[in-house]
Each structure stands twice: as C-alpha cells, then as structure tokens.
# Entry
Amino acid sequence: MPWTVPRPVPRRRGRPGLRVFAAAAALLGLAAALTAGRASGPARSSAAERTLTVATWNMCGVEQWNCRGTGSRAVKRGELEGLVNRSGARVVLLQEACAGDLETVRAALGRTWHTEFRPYTWRDASGRTSGVRCAEPGQGAAGFALLSSYRLSAVATVTAQQPTAGLRRGILCATIASRGLRVCTAHLSPRGSDRAHPDWELRDDQLRALAAAVPARRTVYGGDLNVDPPGPRNPSSWVWSGGPYRTHRECDQASASSRSGRATHLSGHKLDYLFTGLPRVRCTVRDTGASDHFALLLQVRTG
# Structure
C-alpha cells in the first residue's frame, strides 16, 4: 500500500491548543501511514515467494543450424532479458544457446543471477569427440543451460543414451535450495540423430532418464524434447512410455488424462515442455520473434 507524508497544516491565527492539536494529528497520520506501509510490504513479498515462474526457450542461437534470419545476437539477448524483466521468469531453461551471449545476459541482469552451461559435442565415426562453436566471434561454444536468480547447487549432467556418431545433446539438472526445488533443462535427440544407426530411437531412454532424475513433487523440468505429445496422430507416442506424464503434469496439459498443448514451434508442432509435481497457476506460450521455437512459461505454487 503506497503512503504519502501528510501536507503541513497551514499556519493561522487561533488558540495555541488548536495548533498543537493539528500538529499532533498530522504526526499521528504519518505514523499510521508508515505502519500501514510496513505491514503491507512483507505481505506482498510473502505472496510473491509462494509462486515461481520458470521458462524454457530454444534460442536458435547457433546460426549454422538453420537459424539464419531468426534475429540478431542482440535481439536474442534482448528477448532473453525480456523473459526475466517483462515476463517475470526467475529460472530459464535454455537450448541452442551460445556461451558468450548467455554470459552477456547474466552480467546485464546483475550479480544475483547465476548460470550453468554445458556444451554440445560432435562425435565422428571414429569415436573422436569435438565441441560445437557458435558462428560469430565472441559467441563461444554452443550448448544448453540454466539461468537462475537463485544459487544453483548439486549441479549434474544426467546420463542418457546418446548417438554413437553425431550430435550429442543432453540433460542438465540443479537444485535451488532456497526454494526446495530441482530443475532440469533437456535437449533430446530426434530420430535420425545417430549417424551410425539412423533408425535407432533415443528419446524413449532419454525421457525415462529425465523423469527419473527429479523428485516426485518439488521439481520443474523440460526443454526442447523434440517430440510431439503422445496421441493418435503421433506415430512416436510410444517413446513417452514410462516418461514424464505418469508422475508429473505438463504446463499446457488441460487435465490429468489430457495430452493437450499449444504449438511451440513455427512448424505447428509442440516440441517444448515444462513438467512439474507442484500446483500449476498459469501457462503461457510466447512468440519472441527471435527463434523458430516459442518460449514456454509456467507459474507454479511453491509455498
């Protein structure tokens, strides 16, 4: 509740007792306003602490991965900052991010913000592994990451089957001890990712590993899972068997039995997800205009 200092009572001729009474009333009014302001502050803060907004966004920041024309580095960084400053996200799960761009955003947000970054790797037919660099100077390695306004602890890369040869994506988890929450960002391998075995399906193993890496309730996890929701129109529905929908609910899921969800990719497919065991308050799909993926934002009740 905003408060204002009462305007001084105009001086005028009269009995001294009236002037004293008026001054005393003004002081009482100021004290009451200060008390009301102090009382309302903690209440608002407490209410804010009972909810948390988590976002996931594939930035399409690796220009050579069909990301030309999706926005400049500056635009992408601005949209990432916008998920925080305009949309209220306090944790952001990222995929196809560039280490240099992520550090620039973290620095702009301030010292209270933290990041964990893991690079993608490429494994060739001989088994030799190398990193993947973003195209422009200063961007550094390409990878997946966590951006958080809270300190991150117990950071771990989740072991899951990866291509024998080809691009190796991954799953990264961390604990936000101050909120009693485990968060994970994931980027899964679409069919055909294994150059040595193009008919191999890896997402079933990766989804099981992702779901097994988090607690039953106090978690938010997801990312670019590179698969449509299970259903009669999805021939790959079987990869979800034993996966996230059994224990957790998805951001855009209308009911316990529903597998609904708005598109999160320009192709019209839903590829991006946020799962939780906490009560869901709001789910938002946001077209940033700076990626072929839309951002997905989930507000959960944590208290």
Notes: The longest strand covers residues 51-58. The two ends are 23 Å apart (CA to CA). Confidence is low (pLDDT under 50) at residues 1-44. Helices lie at 16-49, 73-85, 99-109, 203-212.
